[in-house]
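In the design runs reported in the main text, the only information available to the sequence generator was the tokenized backbone. The following block is the verbatim input for one such run; it is reproduced so that readers can re-run the procedure and compare outputs position by position.
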């Protein structure tokens, strides 16, 4: 027990020291974790022992990360990504495998080994790439979605790769004793039985996520014991991981599917907030263990060979990714980010190379240098991201990581966070009304375009405390949040409430669900982004259909008031009782329809009476 606590202390202390230093130097948290691993590893201060055992445990951080990514992707969005997933992902894996396998075969290795190496190193690092995209705020951009699509296909590709590798064996299988703790061994079952069991497992995950999870989480939430909800969330992720491992699938893939199914659940945000700390901790320790696993003795003895392998791996995959980007008509700037992000080897290589060695596919003298080359390529990835960001910012000012603008404010009363399609019109209205807000936007290209039209817009991430302070939050009276990303909006609300409680908050919400999220945080003034436009368009439609303009205006006002009046009542029950929420929602709609019909009929009767009295009644 004392040994475990000591190891845990070393990992946590190393992270606590290295990551802030790396972030301060502009290197990012991932590079900080990797450097911490090198320092405390066997070839540094030798403070930790069995790295491989630690990596097996902390790989669960990757599993949790895929679950959280799935929670952010509704099935409809995943369906929209089907072409990038199958097309771009399939093209990248096939071309990379062929190109790398062909290059390896030129070195004199048997074709079976060349094919195995090509397949294994065609995969990229899901953990490093997604974490980096999240940190830089580009996961939900167009190149971010393309990168994610390829990573998802790669995770899917692990399954057929595991099936293909045993067919490439060139030596006797190594007896390495018991192979883990699978719930049952399917290796002796017929192929059709294994396929059937796999399909049943996937369908079971869908059933649990779609139907069983809601009543279970509702019952747990009714206890109002937060720790039990956390335990249930962790049990869900662990249980799905065990099920996927038992049927020979990737645990990360299984939890991703579960996340997608739960993406429309009312408990999505609760699950996300409960899992996030565990994911971050395990993922950080996973990165530390990668840094610690670098074998510097082997690297020193075969420096030229491993350097050539690293450069060859990065170069070939970069070229393949650029070709893939051209084939799928990606813009030039996006192609560069796409290629830089996915050029490295991935964490699955550690597992697959070990599997290949045990099954007589690759000898140990080939596997060891390859593992070092993959680890170095992963280590270089954050540096490549930094280099790309600097070059992109230097080219045309559109880089995602350019420095935030210096803000010159003179006691402005209002801060406007976000200057997109809604913020632009709002900003014009305020300026025309004599109020000049401090305007910030995180889209560098949008900022540059708006400046050409004469707007004084500052580039920067307003969810940074230093930038919020520079915008004059201490003296301002009001902050208006028009950020489209609800997670960013929530982060900003939390920041303002914690550090500037005097600041009034008004916010837009993309839909009713986002409005409820902001109401959870106590934001009093919320306007749904499309609600006003929808009512204005409806008012115009009534007039075009012959309704008197005043009557159309009055109906619009009735609808707005009654709908807004219903929001607090629906908000109180929207998480606790879905059936009651749906019933009350339908009742409000029916009552509203009846009220507007009565108003319309009353006005028509009044107009008829008036027309009769003045003799204007026609046939």
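Verbatim output:
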């Amino acid at each position: 027990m004392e040994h475990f606590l000591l190891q845990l202390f070393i990992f946590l202390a190393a992270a606590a020291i290295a990551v802030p230093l790396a972030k301060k130097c502009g290197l990012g948290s991932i590079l900080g974790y990797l450097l911490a691993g090198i320092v405390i590893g066997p070839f540094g201060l030798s403070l930790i022992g069995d790295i491989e055992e630690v990596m097996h445990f902390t790989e669960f951080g990757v599993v949790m990360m895929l679950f959280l990514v799935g929670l952010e992707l509704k099935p409809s969005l995943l369906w929209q990504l089907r072409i990038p997933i199958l097309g771009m992902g399939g093209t990248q894996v096939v071309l990379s495998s062929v190109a790398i396998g062909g290059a390896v075969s030129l070195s004199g290795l048997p074709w079976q080994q060349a094919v195995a190496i090509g397949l294994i190193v065609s995969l990229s690092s899901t953990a490093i790439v997604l974490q980096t995209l999240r940190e830089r705020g580009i996961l939900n951009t167009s190149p971010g979605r393309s990168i994610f699509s390829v990573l998802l296909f790669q995770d899917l590709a692990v399954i057929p790769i595991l099936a293909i590798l045993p067919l490439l064996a060139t030596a006797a299988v190594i007896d390495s004793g018991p192979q883990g703790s699978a719930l049952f061994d399917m290796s002796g079952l017929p192929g059709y039985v294994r396929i059937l069991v796999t399909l049943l497992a996937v369908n079971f995950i869908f059933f649990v996520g779609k139907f069983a999870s809601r009543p279970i989480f509702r019952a747990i939430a009714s206890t109002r014991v937060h720790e039990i909800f956390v335990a249930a969330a962790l049990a869900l992720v662990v249980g799905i991981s065990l099920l996927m491992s038992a049927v020979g699938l990737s645990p990360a893939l299984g939890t991703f599917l579960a996340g997608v199914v739960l993406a429309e659940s009312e408990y999505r945000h609760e699950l996300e907030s409960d899992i996030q700390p565990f994911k971050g901790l395990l993922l950080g320790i996973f990165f530390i263990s990668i840094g610690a696993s670098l074998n510097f003795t082997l690297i020193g003895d075969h420096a030229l060979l491993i350097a050539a392998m690293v450069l060859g791996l990065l170069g070939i995959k970069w070229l393949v990714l650029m070709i893939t980007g051209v084939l799928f008509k990606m813009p030039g700037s996006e192609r560069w980010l796409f290629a830089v992000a996915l050029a490295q080897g991935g964490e699955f290589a550690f597992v697959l190379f070990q599997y290949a060695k045990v099954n007589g596919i690759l000898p140990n003298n080939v596997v060891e240098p390859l593992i070092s080359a993959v680890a170095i390529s992963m280590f270089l990835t954050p540096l490549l991201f930094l280099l790309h960001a600097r070059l992109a910012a230097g080219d045309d000012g559109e880089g995602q990581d350019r420095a935030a603008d210096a803000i010159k404010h003179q006691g402005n009363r209002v801060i406007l966070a976000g200057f997109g399609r809604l913020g632009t019109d709002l900003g014009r209205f305020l300026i025309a009304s004599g109020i000049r807000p401090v305007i910030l936007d995180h889209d560098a290209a949008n900022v540059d375009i708006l400046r050409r039209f004469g707007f004084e817009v500052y580039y920067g991430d307003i969810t940074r405390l230093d930038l919020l302070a520079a915008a004059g939050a201490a003296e301002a009276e009001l902050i208006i949040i028009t950020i489209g990303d609800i997670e960013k909006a929530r982060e900003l609300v939390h920041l303002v409430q914690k550090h500037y409680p005097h600041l009034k908050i008004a916010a837009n919400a993309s839909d009713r669900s986002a409005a409820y999220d902001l109401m959870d945080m106590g934001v009093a003034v919320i306007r749904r982004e499309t609600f006003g436009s929808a009512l204005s368009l409806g008012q115009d439609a009534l007039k075009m259909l012959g309704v008197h303009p005043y009557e159309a205006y009055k109906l619009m006002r009735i609808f707005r008031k009654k709908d807004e009046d219903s929001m607090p009542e629906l908000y109180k029950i929207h998480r606790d009782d879905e059936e009651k929420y749906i019933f009350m929602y339908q009742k409000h709609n029916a009552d509203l329809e009846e009220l507007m019909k009565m108003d319309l009929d009353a006005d028509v009767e009044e107009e008829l009476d008036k027309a009769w009295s003045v003799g204007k009644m026609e046939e």
